[in-house]
Amino acid sequence: MEHNLKYFGGIKVDKLIGGSNFKGERLTSLIIAQSRLCRLKLFAFTATTTLLLICVCAVQLSTLSDVTRVLMFRSNSQTITPPQITGTERNSENNGYLMVSSNGGLNQMRAGICDMVAIASFMNVTLIVPELDNTSFWNDRSRFEDIFDVDYFIASLRDEVRILKALPDKQKRRVEIATLYSMAPVSWANMKYYYELILPRIKKNEVLHFTQADTRLANNGIPKEVQKLRCKANYRALRFTPPIEELGKKIVRILREKGPFLVLHLRYEMDMLAFSGCTEGCNAKEIEELTNMRFACPWWKQKIIDSVKKRRVGACPLTPEETALALRALDIDPGTQVYIAAGDIYGGERRMVPLRLAFPHTVKKETLLESSDLEPFRNHSNRMAALDYMVSLESDIFVPTYKGNMARIVEGHRRYLGFRTTIRLHRKLLVELIRQYKNGSLSWNEFSQAVKTRHANRMGSPAPRLEIPGKPKEEEYFYSNPQECLPQIV
Question: What is the pTM of this model?
Answer without folding.
Answer: 0.83
